[in-house]
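Lab notebook, bench 4. Continuing the backlog of folding jobs that were queued last week. Each job is logged with the same field layout so the records can be merged later without manual cleanup. Today's entry covers Esterase-like activity of phytase family protein, a 328-residue chain. Filled in by technician R.K.

JOB TYPE: sequence-to-structure
TARGET: Esterase-like activity of phytase family protein
LENGTH: 328
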Amino acid sequence: MTPWVALLCALLALVPLARAEPLELELVAEHPIDGMPSGNLSGLALCGGQLWGESDRDDDRIYRFDRTHAVWQAEPRRFEVPEPPSSGLAWNIRLAAWAAGFVRGGAHDFEGISCDQAENAYLVSEAHAAVLQVPPSGPARWLAIDPQVVQQARHAGLLQNFNAIFEGLAVAPGGDRLWLAAERERRGLVGLVRHGERWGCDGPCVLLSEDGEQLAPTGLAQRFPLHLDFSDLALYRGKLFTLERNAYRICRRDTTSSDVEACWSFAATARVPARQYHQPYGLTEALAVDAEGAWVGTDNNEQPRNDGEQRPVVWRFAAPPGGWMASP
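JOB STATUS: finished
OUTPUT FIELD FOLLOWS
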């Protein structure tokens, strides 16, 4: 076989992989939520067998969801938030975050929630690029994160724009490792390790930094290229699962390299006309994963979808055939 023929065969072998579409997840149920007066569901987490969520407009509470009925009831758990630490964000981003919080509410702009096996809840603040720990009892406290974390992230091109800072987090069961997702322009993943009471990095903090644009899947309202983005993170069986809002998909990634191992789409669910919103970008911002499936929640910015539903909505998808660890 000549070198040219060998090269052609190798290229042809890659064509099916390049054209392969992610397997579509099967929708099992959808659940509107009552009891979140501010709406804006921005994170989901399984904690002690219960499903919890948070709103980026609420600075003083998280919600446990009573899932007894098809329409869920949000039950608030309130706490006090101490003065946030200085993380090293640029002054113009901090100023814009302060102004946005003053106008719309949600000064801390909590954008993700996760839990460890001790049932401590962790909330990531987009306004401060900081993480709040809310224990089962006792006062909430900010994690002592080394300022080098934000500095390294910014040096890698992350955290450059207002409202495009940390959008999700995942915590290891032992509460000793933490991952943060930078939202967009550039999107990325940052890995932290606990050293006593402080959090830093073993090696480079930034696991991924990438930029680019993509078209939304066919049949959805978006008609122009959208930024690659992350809107939430979940950890399941030692793997990171990224919610990629503008691509309408969930991807499984390695926790160290951040390499994509598999992806699954939920575009078919989102493209049903009654479920669509008149918004120029995707709206799914909350993700939790378990053995049976995934919970995906919508931050609808208090806007109604085509069928008139204005409450936050959570979709329940069945796990893919063979489970989340299988190759699609």
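OBSERVATION: Confidence is low (pLDDT under 50) at residues 3-19.
SIGNED: R.K.
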